[in-house]
Amino acid sequence: MSDSETVLSVLADGVLSLTLNRPDKLNSFNEEMHLALRAGFERAHKDADIRAVLLTGAGRGFSAGQDLGDRDPRKGTPDLGHTIETFYNPLLRLIRSLEKPVVCAVNGVAAGAGANIAFACDITLAARSARFIQAFAKIGLVPDSGGTWSLPRLIGEARAKALALTAEPLDAETAASWGLIWRAIDDDKLMDEAKALTVRLASGPTMGLGLTKRAIQAAATNSLDEQLDLERDLQREAGRSADYAEGVTAFLEKRKPEFKGR
Length: 262
Fold this sequence. Notes:
It is built from 10 helices and 10 strands. The protein is α/β, with parallel strands linked by helices. The strands form 2 sheets. The chain has a 6-stranded mixed β-sheet with strand order 1-2-3-5-7-10, with helices on both faces. The longest helix is centred in the middle third of the chain and has 18 residues, at 80-97.
């Protein structure tokens, strides 16, 4: 368990499972939950025993985004830029820069920052009953948590604008068909599939998987020549790894490889 009960943290089979745990508030973010989730991803960066991360929510929803009760304008004008700079931006940077697979299992509504945090993960699965909502438009705000960056890259400008300006819910099947998430799964099978996938990734050549994540993320801003050079450099690094040696040796010896993530 983590020190804060707002995020449950369990490490098993190389997988750090992080569960948002304010189910009575649809796992909306308060400062305690922000700090606890950040601590979980900081631990994933530092702990070699953690080879993959699984993020999900407790109860009937993944996350409704920011707890608006903590940013009530009736109690004084809040500095929402400070909130983003202090809490959301560091979290998004930790998720994107973690050179280990991050799987997200969206078990219900994912609204506002909750949706955009899910989109920032490497592989996102969702229950068929899940809904993604860019709820910012309902209260006069701008999508944050990387939403204005990830949405147009994943689904194009037209769809990104429509989702952001209308705040209409998007069902999991459509999100999958549009390329916002990897797959929609029957509700009762979501966690079993998400856990099995994350354990499989954690037992794989996670050094190479991390380098792959870095390369794909860099492609959004690299030219072709820059990307080709990056592939060369990363492949050189991967080719010197113990995982590569083990993978090829196991193939030649016709046995299952035992990767160590280095």
